[in-house]
Sequence to fold (510 residues):
Amino acid sequence: MLQVKNLTITHKKDLTTLVEGLSFTLAPGDRAALIGEEGNGKSTVLKLLYRPELVESYVEWTGEIVDRGLRKGWLAQELSPGELALTVWEFCRRVPAFEEADPKALDRAARQVGLSSELFWDSRSVSTLSGGERVKLRLALLLLDGPDVLLLDEPSNDLDLTTLEWLERFLLSCQVPVLYISHDETLLEHTANAVIHLERLRRRTVSRCTTAKMGYAQYVGERSAGFERQEQLARKERAEYDAKMDTFRRIHDSVEHQLTTVSRQNPGKGRLLKKKMHTVLSMGRRFEREKENMTALPEWEEAILAAFDQEMSAFPAGKTVLRLDLPELTAGDRTLARNVRLWVDGPEKIGVTGPNGAGKSTLLKLIADQLLARTDLRAAYMPQDYGDLLLGDRTPVEVLAPSGRREDVTRARTLLGNMKYKAEEMEHPAAGLSGGQRAKLLFLSMVLNGANVLVLDEPTRNFSPLSAPVIRRVLADFPGVIISVSHDRLYLEQVCTRVLKLGPEGLRER
Fold:
Protein backbone atom coordinates (compact mmCIF):
# COMPACT_ATOMS: atom_id res chain seq x y z
CA MET A 1 0.00 0.00 0.00
CA LEU A 2 1.31 3.43 -1.00
CA GLN A 3 0.44 6.36 1.28
CA VAL A 4 0.96 10.06 0.65
CA LYS A 5 0.51 12.39 3.61
CA ASN A 6 0.19 16.18 3.34
CA LEU A 7 2.44 16.47 0.28
CA THR A 8 3.36 20.01 -0.78
CA ILE A 9 5.52 20.68 -3.84
CA THR A 10 7.08 24.08 -4.56
CA HIS A 11 8.86 25.16 -7.74
CA LYS A 12 12.38 26.37 -6.91
CA LYS A 13 12.62 28.93 -9.70
CA ASP A 14 9.64 31.17 -8.84
CA LEU A 15 8.48 29.59 -5.54
CA THR A 16 5.14 28.65 -7.14
CA THR A 17 3.24 26.07 -5.09
CA LEU A 18 2.31 23.32 -7.54
CA VAL A 19 0.64 21.00 -5.03
CA GLU A 20 -0.41 21.68 -1.45
CA GLY A 21 -1.66 19.29 1.21
CA LEU A 22 -2.13 16.24 -1.02
CA SER A 23 -3.00 13.05 0.89
CA PHE A 24 -4.21 9.73 -0.46
CA THR A 25 -3.77 5.97 -0.15
CA LEU A 26 -3.28 3.61 -3.07
CA ALA A 27 -4.39 0.07 -2.25
CA PRO A 28 -4.77 -3.15 -4.27
CA GLY A 29 -7.64 -2.83 -6.72
CA ASP A 30 -7.28 0.95 -7.01
CA ARG A 31 -7.04 2.47 -10.47
CA ALA A 32 -6.58 6.12 -9.58
CA ALA A 33 -6.62 8.75 -12.33
CA LEU A 34 -4.43 11.78 -11.62
CA ILE A 35 -6.10 14.69 -13.43
CA GLY A 36 -5.69 18.46 -13.69
CA GLU A 37 -4.99 21.24 -16.12
CA GLU A 38 -1.73 21.53 -18.05
CA GLY A 39 1.27 22.52 -15.92
CA ASN A 40 -0.34 21.63 -12.57
CA GLY A 41 2.38 19.18 -11.56
CA LYS A 42 0.85 15.79 -12.42
CA SER A 43 4.02 14.33 -13.97
CA THR A 44 6.08 15.83 -11.15
CA VAL A 45 3.95 13.98 -8.59
CA LEU A 46 4.48 10.66 -10.39
CA LYS A 47 8.24 11.19 -10.66
CA LEU A 48 8.46 12.18 -6.98
CA LEU A 49 6.57 9.06 -5.90
CA TYR A 50 8.83 6.89 -8.03
CA ARG A 51 12.20 8.43 -7.30
CA PRO A 52 12.55 11.88 -5.61
CA GLU A 53 15.93 12.56 -7.21
CA LEU A 54 14.17 12.87 -10.59
CA VAL A 55 12.62 16.19 -9.50
CA GLU A 56 15.04 17.58 -6.91
CA SER A 57 16.68 19.89 -9.49
CA TYR A 58 13.53 21.98 -9.95
CA VAL A 59 11.18 21.46 -6.97
CA GLU A 60 11.27 21.20 -3.20
CA TRP A 61 8.76 19.12 -1.26
CA THR A 62 7.48 18.47 2.23
CA GLY A 63 5.18 15.80 3.59
CA GLU A 64 5.52 12.06 3.86
CA ILE A 65 5.59 9.26 1.26
CA VAL A 66 5.09 5.87 2.94
CA ASP A 67 6.02 3.03 0.60
CA ARG A 68 7.74 0.52 2.93
CA GLY A 69 10.02 -0.82 0.23
CA LEU A 70 7.35 -1.23 -2.44
CA ARG A 71 8.61 -2.09 -5.92
CA LYS A 72 7.38 0.77 -8.09
CA GLY A 73 7.10 0.58 -11.85
CA TRP A 74 7.19 3.97 -13.57
CA LEU A 75 6.27 4.58 -17.20
CA ALA A 76 7.70 7.94 -18.29
CA GLN A 77 5.65 10.15 -20.59
CA GLU A 78 8.29 10.16 -23.34
CA LEU A 79 11.47 8.34 -24.27
CA SER A 80 14.67 10.36 -24.63
CA PRO A 81 16.33 10.75 -28.06
CA GLY A 82 19.09 8.43 -26.85
CA GLU A 83 16.60 5.72 -25.91
CA LEU A 84 14.78 6.05 -29.23
CA ALA A 85 18.07 5.55 -31.09
CA LEU A 86 18.77 2.19 -29.41
CA THR A 87 17.80 -1.10 -30.98
CA VAL A 88 14.93 -2.86 -29.20
CA TRP A 89 17.34 -5.48 -27.85
CA GLU A 90 19.75 -2.80 -26.55
CA PHE A 91 16.83 -0.98 -24.95
CA CYS A 92 15.66 -4.14 -23.19
CA ARG A 93 19.16 -5.04 -21.96
CA ARG A 94 19.29 -1.80 -19.97
CA VAL A 95 16.63 -3.26 -17.65
CA PRO A 96 18.20 -5.57 -15.01
CA ALA A 97 15.02 -7.68 -14.73
CA PHE A 98 15.24 -8.46 -18.44
CA GLU A 99 18.82 -9.70 -18.15
CA GLU A 100 17.86 -11.90 -15.20
CA ALA A 101 14.60 -13.28 -16.63
CA ASP A 102 14.29 -16.81 -18.00
CA PRO A 103 12.45 -17.51 -21.29
CA LYS A 104 9.24 -18.47 -19.47
CA ALA A 105 9.14 -15.17 -17.59
CA LEU A 106 9.81 -13.23 -20.80
CA ASP A 107 7.07 -15.11 -22.62
CA ARG A 108 4.62 -14.52 -19.76
CA ALA A 109 5.35 -10.75 -19.66
CA ALA A 110 4.97 -10.49 -23.44
CA ARG A 111 1.62 -12.32 -23.36
CA GLN A 112 0.36 -10.01 -20.60
CA VAL A 113 0.71 -7.02 -22.91
CA GLY A 114 -0.22 -8.71 -26.15
CA LEU A 115 3.25 -8.88 -27.74
CA SER A 116 5.32 -11.63 -29.25
CA SER A 117 8.36 -12.33 -27.05
CA GLU A 118 10.48 -12.25 -30.23
CA LEU A 119 10.22 -8.45 -30.14
CA PHE A 120 12.63 -8.34 -27.18
CA TRP A 121 15.49 -9.34 -29.51
CA ASP A 122 14.49 -7.15 -32.45
CA SER A 123 17.34 -5.31 -34.19
CA ARG A 124 15.15 -2.38 -35.29
CA SER A 125 15.60 0.93 -33.52
CA VAL A 126 13.01 1.79 -30.88
CA SER A 127 12.11 4.89 -32.92
CA THR A 128 10.72 2.68 -35.72
CA LEU A 129 8.20 0.97 -33.43
CA SER A 130 4.63 2.19 -33.45
CA GLY A 131 3.35 4.12 -30.44
CA GLY A 132 1.40 1.08 -29.31
CA GLU A 133 4.41 -1.24 -29.61
CA ARG A 134 6.56 1.14 -27.55
CA VAL A 135 4.00 1.34 -24.74
CA LYS A 136 3.48 -2.43 -24.68
CA LEU A 137 7.24 -3.10 -24.71
CA ARG A 138 7.87 -0.72 -21.82
CA LEU A 139 4.97 -2.17 -19.82
CA ALA A 140 6.29 -5.70 -20.40
CA LEU A 141 9.70 -4.65 -19.05
CA LEU A 142 8.03 -3.09 -16.00
CA LEU A 143 6.05 -6.27 -15.32
CA LEU A 144 9.23 -8.39 -15.44
CA ASP A 145 10.36 -6.65 -12.25
CA GLY A 146 7.18 -7.72 -10.40
CA PRO A 147 6.07 -4.22 -9.33
CA ASP A 148 3.79 -3.72 -6.32
CA VAL A 149 2.39 -0.51 -7.81
CA LEU A 150 2.35 1.04 -11.30
CA LEU A 151 2.85 4.76 -11.95
CA LEU A 152 1.94 5.44 -15.57
CA ASP A 153 2.43 8.86 -17.20
CA GLU A 154 0.24 9.14 -20.32
CA PRO A 155 0.22 5.46 -21.36
CA SER A 156 -2.59 6.29 -23.80
CA ASN A 157 -0.56 8.81 -25.82
CA ASP A 158 0.04 7.83 -29.46
CA LEU A 159 -2.11 4.70 -29.27
CA ASP A 160 -4.46 3.72 -32.06
CA LEU A 161 -8.07 2.83 -31.27
CA THR A 162 -7.41 -0.91 -31.11
CA THR A 163 -4.49 -0.45 -28.70
CA LEU A 164 -6.51 1.98 -26.56
CA GLU A 165 -9.12 -0.73 -26.13
CA TRP A 166 -6.34 -3.17 -25.20
CA LEU A 167 -5.01 -0.68 -22.61
CA GLU A 168 -8.48 -0.46 -21.06
CA ARG A 169 -8.56 -4.25 -20.66
CA PHE A 170 -5.01 -4.24 -19.24
CA LEU A 171 -5.87 -1.64 -16.60
CA LEU A 172 -9.10 -3.38 -15.63
CA SER A 173 -7.32 -6.72 -15.18
CA CYS A 174 -4.23 -5.31 -13.43
CA GLN A 175 -3.55 -7.08 -10.11
CA VAL A 176 -1.55 -4.23 -8.55
CA PRO A 177 -2.71 -0.68 -7.73
CA VAL A 178 -2.26 1.82 -10.55
CA LEU A 179 -1.89 5.61 -10.46
CA TYR A 180 -2.01 7.02 -13.96
CA ILE A 181 -2.33 10.18 -16.01
CA SER A 182 -4.34 10.13 -19.21
CA HIS A 183 -5.95 12.72 -21.47
CA ASP A 184 -8.33 10.18 -22.98
CA GLU A 185 -11.74 10.79 -21.39
CA THR A 186 -13.20 7.53 -22.69
CA LEU A 187 -10.33 5.56 -21.17
CA LEU A 188 -10.83 7.34 -17.84
CA GLU A 189 -14.56 6.70 -17.85
CA HIS A 190 -14.03 3.00 -18.57
CA THR A 191 -11.18 2.30 -16.13
CA ALA A 192 -10.75 4.75 -13.22
CA ASN A 193 -12.34 3.90 -9.86
CA ALA A 194 -10.69 6.78 -8.01
CA VAL A 195 -9.78 10.36 -8.94
CA ILE A 196 -7.03 12.65 -7.65
CA HIS A 197 -7.59 16.18 -8.97
CA LEU A 198 -4.86 18.85 -8.85
CA GLU A 199 -6.05 22.44 -9.39
CA ARG A 200 -4.50 25.90 -9.31
CA LEU A 201 -7.05 28.64 -8.65
CA ARG A 202 -7.11 32.46 -8.54
CA ARG A 203 -4.95 32.95 -11.59
CA ARG A 204 -2.89 29.89 -10.69
CA THR A 205 -1.74 31.24 -7.32
CA VAL A 206 -3.65 28.89 -4.98
CA SER A 207 -3.42 25.09 -5.09
CA ARG A 208 -6.28 22.73 -4.28
CA CYS A 209 -6.22 18.92 -4.16
CA THR A 210 -9.34 16.76 -4.26
CA THR A 211 -9.47 12.98 -3.87
CA ALA A 212 -12.57 10.91 -4.57
CA LYS A 213 -13.17 7.15 -4.43
CA MET A 214 -15.46 7.00 -7.46
CA GLY A 215 -15.36 6.67 -11.21
CA TYR A 216 -14.32 9.55 -13.44
CA ALA A 217 -17.75 10.20 -14.98
CA GLN A 218 -19.40 10.16 -11.54
CA TYR A 219 -16.74 12.52 -10.17
CA VAL A 220 -17.19 15.03 -12.99
CA GLY A 221 -20.98 14.84 -12.69
CA GLU A 222 -21.07 15.21 -8.89
CA ARG A 223 -18.46 17.98 -9.00
CA SER A 224 -20.50 19.95 -11.54
CA ALA A 225 -23.77 19.38 -9.67
CA GLY A 226 -22.14 20.30 -6.35
CA PHE A 227 -20.75 23.54 -7.79
CA GLU A 228 -24.17 24.37 -9.23
CA ARG A 229 -25.91 23.80 -5.87
CA GLN A 230 -23.23 25.78 -4.05
CA GLU A 231 -23.51 28.68 -6.51
CA GLN A 232 -27.32 28.77 -6.21
CA LEU A 233 -27.14 28.80 -2.41
CA ALA A 234 -24.38 31.41 -2.37
CA ARG A 235 -26.26 33.72 -4.72
CA LYS A 236 -29.50 33.28 -2.75
CA GLU A 237 -27.70 34.18 0.50
CA ARG A 238 -26.13 37.21 -1.15
CA ALA A 239 -29.48 38.40 -2.50
CA GLU A 240 -31.03 38.01 0.97
CA TYR A 241 -28.07 39.86 2.51
CA ASP A 242 -28.39 42.71 -0.01
CA ALA A 243 -32.13 43.00 0.79
CA LYS A 244 -31.41 43.09 4.54
CA MET A 245 -28.72 45.72 4.02
CA ASP A 246 -31.10 47.87 1.96
CA THR A 247 -33.59 47.73 4.83
CA PHE A 248 -30.85 48.44 7.36
CA ARG A 249 -29.59 51.48 5.43
CA ARG A 250 -33.11 52.93 5.12
CA ILE A 251 -33.77 52.53 8.86
CA HIS A 252 -30.30 53.83 9.73
CA ASP A 253 -30.65 56.91 7.52
CA SER A 254 -34.15 57.63 8.89
CA VAL A 255 -33.06 57.38 12.54
CA GLU A 256 -29.93 59.43 11.83
CA HIS A 257 -32.03 62.13 10.17
CA GLN A 258 -34.45 62.22 13.13
CA LEU A 259 -31.57 62.44 15.59
CA THR A 260 -30.18 65.42 13.74
CA THR A 261 -33.49 67.31 13.57
CA VAL A 262 -35.25 66.25 16.79
CA SER A 263 -32.78 65.69 19.61
CA ARG A 264 -32.09 69.39 20.35
CA GLN A 265 -35.76 70.34 20.40
CA ASN A 266 -36.94 67.25 22.30
CA PRO A 267 -34.21 65.69 24.53
CA GLY A 268 -36.49 62.88 25.70
CA LYS A 269 -37.28 61.78 22.20
CA GLY A 270 -33.59 62.18 21.35
CA ARG A 271 -32.64 59.64 24.04
CA LEU A 272 -35.16 57.17 22.62
CA LEU A 273 -33.75 57.72 19.14
CA LYS A 274 -30.21 57.09 20.42
CA LYS A 275 -31.36 53.79 21.90
CA LYS A 276 -33.02 52.97 18.60
CA MET A 277 -29.81 53.82 16.74
CA HIS A 278 -27.90 51.51 19.09
CA THR A 279 -30.32 48.70 18.17
CA VAL A 280 -29.99 49.51 14.47
CA LEU A 281 -26.17 49.42 14.64
CA SER A 282 -26.33 46.07 16.49
CA MET A 283 -28.51 44.77 13.67
CA GLY A 284 -25.91 45.96 11.15
CA ARG A 285 -23.13 44.19 13.03
CA ARG A 286 -25.22 41.01 13.08
CA PHE A 287 -25.68 41.23 9.32
CA GLU A 288 -21.90 41.65 8.88
CA ARG A 289 -21.29 38.50 10.95
CA GLU A 290 -23.82 36.66 8.79
CA LYS A 291 -21.90 37.83 5.72
CA GLU A 292 -18.69 36.29 7.04
CA ASN A 293 -20.45 32.92 7.37
CA MET A 294 -22.15 32.97 3.97
CA THR A 295 -21.59 30.06 1.58
CA ALA A 296 -18.61 30.86 -0.63
CA LEU A 297 -19.09 31.07 -4.36
CA PRO A 298 -17.54 27.94 -5.87
CA GLU A 299 -14.06 28.14 -7.34
CA TRP A 300 -12.86 25.91 -10.13
CA GLU A 301 -10.10 25.98 -12.70
CA GLU A 302 -11.73 26.81 -15.98
CA ALA A 303 -10.21 25.67 -19.25
CA ILE A 304 -10.19 28.71 -21.52
CA LEU A 305 -9.26 28.87 -25.19
CA ALA A 306 -9.72 31.87 -27.43
CA ALA A 307 -12.30 31.25 -30.15
CA PHE A 308 -11.59 31.75 -33.84
CA ASP A 309 -13.04 34.83 -35.52
CA GLN A 310 -16.11 33.53 -37.35
CA GLU A 311 -15.79 36.00 -40.22
CA MET A 312 -12.02 35.85 -40.69
CA SER A 313 -11.79 32.04 -40.50
CA ALA A 314 -14.84 31.25 -42.63
CA PHE A 315 -14.22 29.15 -45.74
CA PRO A 316 -16.56 29.28 -48.77
CA ALA A 317 -18.84 26.25 -49.05
CA GLY A 318 -17.87 24.03 -51.99
CA LYS A 319 -14.52 25.69 -52.63
CA THR A 320 -11.78 23.16 -53.37
CA VAL A 321 -9.28 22.72 -50.55
CA LEU A 322 -7.48 19.54 -51.56
CA ARG A 323 -7.36 17.13 -54.46
CA LEU A 324 -4.87 14.46 -53.42
CA ASP A 325 -4.41 11.34 -55.56
CA LEU A 326 -1.31 9.51 -54.36
CA PRO A 327 -0.30 6.23 -56.01
CA GLU A 328 1.95 5.36 -53.05
CA LEU A 329 2.51 6.76 -49.56
CA THR A 330 6.08 5.98 -48.56
CA ALA A 331 8.43 6.50 -45.61
CA GLY A 332 12.03 5.96 -46.66
CA ASP A 333 12.07 2.76 -48.69
CA ARG A 334 8.84 1.44 -47.15
CA THR A 335 5.46 1.63 -48.87
CA LEU A 336 2.85 2.42 -46.23
CA ALA A 337 -0.27 2.66 -48.39
CA ARG A 338 -1.33 2.63 -52.01
CA ASN A 339 -3.92 4.60 -53.97
CA VAL A 340 -4.44 7.25 -51.30
CA ARG A 341 -7.21 9.56 -52.49
CA LEU A 342 -8.45 12.51 -50.44
CA TRP A 343 -10.68 15.23 -51.86
CA VAL A 344 -11.74 17.97 -49.48
CA ASP A 345 -14.06 20.92 -50.06
CA GLY A 346 -14.98 23.75 -47.74
CA PRO A 347 -15.96 23.67 -44.94
CA GLU A 348 -15.46 19.96 -44.20
CA LYS A 349 -13.88 18.63 -41.02
CA ILE A 350 -11.96 15.45 -41.80
CA GLY A 351 -10.71 12.97 -39.20
CA VAL A 352 -8.15 10.33 -40.23
CA THR A 353 -7.64 7.31 -38.01
CA GLY A 354 -5.93 3.95 -38.41
CA PRO A 355 -3.46 1.60 -36.73
CA ASN A 356 -0.12 2.81 -35.41
CA GLY A 357 2.48 2.81 -38.17
CA ALA A 358 -0.07 3.14 -40.98
CA GLY A 359 1.46 6.45 -42.11
CA LYS A 360 -1.15 8.93 -40.80
CA SER A 361 1.36 11.57 -39.64
CA THR A 362 3.39 11.09 -42.84
CA LEU A 363 0.26 11.74 -44.90
CA LEU A 364 -0.71 14.77 -42.82
CA LYS A 365 2.76 16.31 -43.18
CA LEU A 366 2.55 15.88 -46.95
CA ILE A 367 -0.88 17.58 -46.97
CA ALA A 368 0.39 20.39 -44.74
CA ASP A 369 3.34 21.08 -47.05
CA GLN A 370 0.95 21.47 -49.99
CA LEU A 371 -1.55 23.71 -48.21
CA LEU A 372 0.98 25.94 -46.45
CA ALA A 373 2.48 26.83 -49.84
CA ARG A 374 -0.83 28.13 -51.21
CA THR A 375 -1.76 31.81 -51.23
CA ASP A 376 -5.50 31.42 -51.80
CA LEU A 377 -6.07 30.15 -48.26
CA ARG A 378 -4.55 30.63 -44.81
CA ALA A 379 -3.40 27.23 -43.58
CA ALA A 380 -1.92 26.40 -40.18
CA TYR A 381 -0.23 23.16 -39.18
CA MET A 382 0.04 21.61 -35.72
CA PRO A 383 2.33 18.56 -35.78
CA GLN A 384 2.31 15.88 -33.13
CA ASP A 385 5.73 17.04 -31.94
CA TYR A 386 5.66 20.78 -31.27
CA GLY A 387 9.42 21.08 -30.96
CA ASP A 388 9.95 22.09 -34.57
CA LEU A 389 7.62 25.07 -34.15
CA LEU A 390 8.91 26.20 -30.75
CA LEU A 391 12.65 25.94 -31.19
CA GLY A 392 15.13 28.19 -29.41
CA ASP A 393 14.51 30.51 -26.47
CA ARG A 394 11.44 32.32 -27.79
CA THR A 395 8.94 33.14 -25.07
CA PRO A 396 5.16 32.73 -25.51
CA VAL A 397 4.88 36.48 -26.09
CA GLU A 398 7.56 36.36 -28.80
CA VAL A 399 5.83 33.37 -30.45
CA LEU A 400 2.52 35.28 -30.64
CA ALA A 401 4.00 38.70 -31.41
CA PRO A 402 7.09 38.10 -33.58
CA SER A 403 6.91 41.69 -34.89
CA GLY A 404 7.71 43.06 -31.43
CA ARG A 405 5.34 45.99 -32.01
CA ARG A 406 3.87 47.36 -28.80
CA GLU A 407 0.25 46.78 -29.83
CA ASP A 408 1.01 43.18 -30.88
CA VAL A 409 2.84 42.48 -27.62
CA THR A 410 -0.03 43.96 -25.60
CA ARG A 411 -2.56 41.82 -27.46
CA ALA A 412 -0.43 38.71 -26.96
CA ARG A 413 -0.11 39.38 -23.22
CA THR A 414 -3.86 39.96 -22.93
CA LEU A 415 -4.69 36.69 -24.69
CA LEU A 416 -2.17 34.74 -22.60
CA GLY A 417 -3.54 36.35 -19.43
CA ASN A 418 -7.07 35.35 -20.42
CA MET A 419 -5.82 31.78 -20.74
CA LYS A 420 -4.37 32.01 -17.20
CA TYR A 421 -0.71 32.21 -18.09
CA LYS A 422 1.06 33.87 -15.17
CA ALA A 423 3.30 36.85 -15.99
CA GLU A 424 6.44 34.82 -15.32
CA GLU A 425 5.20 31.97 -17.55
CA MET A 426 4.89 34.44 -20.41
CA GLU A 427 8.64 35.04 -20.10
CA HIS A 428 9.71 31.39 -19.83
CA PRO A 429 11.08 29.79 -23.03
CA ALA A 430 8.08 28.28 -24.81
CA ALA A 431 10.01 25.06 -25.44
CA GLY A 432 10.12 24.47 -21.66
CA LEU A 433 6.35 24.68 -21.11
CA SER A 434 4.21 21.60 -20.55
CA GLY A 435 2.76 19.86 -23.60
CA GLY A 436 -0.69 21.28 -22.92
CA GLN A 437 0.58 24.83 -22.48
CA ARG A 438 2.50 24.58 -25.76
CA ALA A 439 -0.61 23.23 -27.49
CA LYS A 440 -2.63 26.21 -26.22
CA LEU A 441 0.10 28.52 -27.48
CA LEU A 442 -0.06 27.03 -30.99
CA PHE A 443 -3.86 27.31 -30.99
CA LEU A 444 -3.57 30.97 -30.02
CA SER A 445 -1.11 31.51 -32.86
CA MET A 446 -3.64 30.02 -35.30
CA VAL A 447 -6.34 32.32 -33.92
CA LEU A 448 -4.16 35.42 -34.26
CA ASN A 449 -3.16 34.50 -37.81
CA GLY A 450 -6.79 34.11 -38.87
CA ALA A 451 -6.25 30.61 -40.26
CA ASN A 452 -9.16 29.18 -42.24
CA VAL A 453 -7.66 25.73 -42.87
CA LEU A 454 -6.27 23.73 -39.94
CA VAL A 455 -4.05 20.69 -40.40
CA LEU A 456 -3.91 19.04 -36.96
CA ASP A 457 -2.01 15.94 -35.82
CA GLU A 458 -3.64 14.65 -32.62
CA PRO A 459 -5.06 18.07 -31.61
CA THR A 460 -6.40 16.96 -28.22
CA ARG A 461 -3.42 14.79 -27.32
CA ASN A 462 -1.84 17.12 -24.73
CA PHE A 463 -4.96 18.64 -23.23
CA SER A 464 -6.26 17.48 -19.88
CA PRO A 465 -9.60 15.62 -19.89
CA LEU A 466 -11.13 18.77 -18.37
CA SER A 467 -9.69 21.01 -21.13
CA ALA A 468 -10.45 18.66 -24.03
CA PRO A 469 -14.22 19.40 -24.09
CA VAL A 470 -13.41 23.10 -24.54
CA ILE A 471 -10.98 22.33 -27.39
CA ARG A 472 -13.54 20.11 -29.08
CA ARG A 473 -16.21 22.80 -28.77
CA VAL A 474 -13.92 25.47 -30.26
CA LEU A 475 -12.99 23.20 -33.18
CA ALA A 476 -16.59 22.08 -33.75
CA ASP A 477 -17.56 25.77 -34.03
CA PHE A 478 -14.60 26.59 -36.31
CA PRO A 479 -16.10 27.91 -39.58
CA GLY A 480 -13.21 26.80 -41.77
CA VAL A 481 -11.74 23.46 -42.86
CA ILE A 482 -10.06 20.91 -40.61
CA ILE A 483 -7.95 17.98 -41.81
CA SER A 484 -6.80 16.01 -38.81
CA VAL A 485 -5.40 12.78 -37.45
CA SER A 486 -6.85 11.61 -34.15
CA HIS A 487 -7.46 8.60 -31.94
CA ASP A 488 -9.65 10.63 -29.58
CA ARG A 489 -12.99 8.88 -29.83
CA LEU A 490 -14.96 11.90 -28.60
CA TYR A 491 -13.13 14.25 -31.00
CA LEU A 492 -13.95 12.03 -33.98
CA GLU A 493 -17.59 11.91 -32.92
CA GLN A 494 -18.15 15.56 -31.95
CA VAL A 495 -15.93 17.52 -34.35
CA CYS A 496 -15.47 15.58 -37.57
CA THR A 497 -18.04 15.58 -40.36
CA ARG A 498 -16.21 12.71 -42.09
CA VAL A 499 -13.98 10.02 -40.57
CA LEU A 500 -11.59 7.99 -42.76
CA LYS A 501 -9.38 5.04 -41.87
CA LEU A 502 -5.91 4.74 -43.43
CA GLY A 503 -4.74 1.24 -44.27
CA PRO A 504 -2.49 -0.47 -46.82
CA GLU A 505 -5.13 0.01 -49.52
CA GLY A 506 -5.57 3.73 -48.89
CA LEU A 507 -8.31 5.74 -47.19
CA ARG A 508 -11.72 4.24 -46.55
CA GLU A 509 -14.84 5.65 -44.96
CA ARG A 510 -15.00 4.43 -41.36
Observations:
- The chain has three domains: 2-223, 236-292, 320-509.
- The radius of gyration is 29 Å.
